[in-house]
Amino acid sequence: MNLKAAKGDLDSKIFDTINIILLVVFTIIIVVPLWNVVVSSFSSGRALAEGGFIFWPKELSLENYQAVFRDTGIWQAFFISVAKTVIGVITHVFFCAMVGYGLSKKYVRGRKFYVAMGVITMFFSGGMIPTYLLIKSLGLLNTFWVYIIPALLSFYDVIILMNFFRNVPDSLEESAKIDGGGDWRVFLSIFIPLSMPAMATIALFNGVGQWNDFMTTKLYITDQSLYPLQMMLYEIIVQSQTQSMQNIGSVAIQTTTKGVQLATIVVTTLPIVVMYPILQRYFISGMMLGAVKE
Amino acid sequence: MGKTVLVQPTGTGPVQSTGKKPRGQRIKEFFIDFRRQWELQSMILPGIIFMFIFCYIPIYGLSIAFKNYTVIDTLDSAPWVGLDNFKIIISDKYFWDSVVNTLGISFLKLAVGFVIPIILAIMIYEVSMGRFKKFVQTISYLPHFLSWIVLGGMLITWFSTSGLLNEVLLGLGLISQPQNILLDPSKYWWIATLSDIWKEAGWGTILYLAVMSKIDPTYYEAAKIDGASRLRQIWNITLPNMKMIISLNLILTVSGLLGSNLDQTLVLMNSQNREKAEVINSYVYRMGMTQGDFSYATAVGLGVSIISVILLVTANKVTSKLNDNQSVL
């Protein structure tokens, strides 16, 4: 009996060891390529063209970043990215919360119809071209508002917030109503402060989506002054791909584009990485909220 | 049935009644309630108007798939052409190429990418050191938050002749000449699949881990006393408890077989690998947005979504048979 238990312990130890080794390999596969991009962006053009390094560049230099920040375009793109993320998130969360609050009251007239109408939008959409034609006929092409207005509402988020509001005790609402407050007052001064955790989760995921979104720009924007960082990066990538394929320009020009591309990647990703620890705190609550919707 | 009158304590609720009343009176009551609830209605109605404009008008706009729409037309003035656009699709070689590529990449993602998050989730679950567990999770979720444009830029850097991949392969002696595999069409499906797995495998574990955390720990204790090995415990306790969530994910994956990642394709596709990289989404984009053939592009998109719905229903039927007639959806 003792022998059997000891054997089981040994097996278990072997299992743990192999498991941990495999997980370490897995994290290396994720971290090393990311690290390589960061150090490459701090590498001089010459060292970049030669290659031959993985963990530390042969020649450290800030020339790529100097080239990136000398271009006024990147400041403009950064400003657009920040503006569309901040404005987009605030309006999206408020709009979804407002609709969700209204629908959270079971006695609202027409509620069944409203919810059915919303659920249909979760499964059916007109797709790329009909949506494009709509945006065009609304005159939203090449305006900043195309980042904000079509992204105002997502019925998933409405349902999540609606379920959250429902779990708030009725007594809070009643006491406010006795004091003479209407539904708007109750919503703005009681429910919004109470539901900050749920709204923060939606805000963070929506914010990452806005920051990373590039299709909206690709489809609806041709005016370069409205390009966000993602679109600018895309243009740089396409440009350097064509150059290296058709051998346009000297090696020097090609390596500069490559360095600029790397530095832009880092600049574009930095806000996400900075926000990542905060984001992480909301993963679990986000998944729990997500589970409710299924 | 007696008349039960429920009056909301707040005074804004409707006067509900379960008894049958004449139609006129019901409509009148509806409007009285509606006016009393104007504050709540004023919160909901902007959302309804929004959905009408941004969701239902485009759904109506799908009708151009059955029309010959040109730039000078409005949605209603374009002439009807019936199923003509769909007939052209059938003989369109480039469309079928994009279908083959979409299915090829999707099946690779299904075959390789579906099990990896499951295995990874089990591996993370089996770790007993809290710190290390947290660390692995933190690292593995990170790539999910990078955009495809950023990842595309990174991939191009890693695959370039002086990039990371060539350094590693040269160092290991696996190749003698550096080469850029992004320019090699025969490797594109694997690049699309593996880069997607690299990005999403860690994130895919979250749902599985959430389900596993609800498994009753006494099962494992009992199994330990019976002398079951760790692998045996995984096979006989962990996996059976994940059956539902795995089938749900499988159904969603199968119904998404014809779906493709437009962001990924747009950033990784180039003139050399296009024949293997063009997927249905990017084909719709090219026909509609670049070439301006709105009707045809809409027809392609509509046809593909109809097939996807059929796939979803079939997959749900098949898995519910396997799951003792319990439907997952």
Give the number of helices of chain B.
16
Q: List the secondary-structure elements of chain B in sequence, H or E.
A: HHHHHHHHHHHHHHHH
The SSE string of chain A, one letter per element, is HHHHHHHHHHHHHH
Tell me the domain tally of chain A: 2
Query: What is the assembly state of the chains in this entry?
Result: heterodimer
What is the CATH top level name of the largest domain in chain A? Mainly Alpha
Q: What portion of residues of chain B is helical?
A: 55-70%
Low-confidence stretches of chain B: 1-13
Radius of gyration of chain B: 27 Å
Label the structural class of chain B: mainly alpha
- Briefly note the CATH topology name of the largest domain in chain A: MetI-like fold
- Name the average pLDDT of chain B: 87
Structural class category of chain A: mainly alpha
Question: In percent terms, what proportion of residues of chain B is strand?
Answer: under 5%
End-to-end separation of chain A: 48 Å
CATH superfamily of the largest domain in chain A: MetI-like
Counting DSSP E segments of at least 2 residues, the number of strands of chain B comes to 0
Family (chain A): Belongs to the binding-protein-dependent transport system permease family.
Keywords (chain A): Cell membrane, Membrane, Transmembrane, Transmembrane helix, Transport
Membrane topology (chain A): Multi-pass membrane protein
Transmembrane segments (chain A): 20-38, 74-101, 113-132, 144-165, 186-205, 260-279
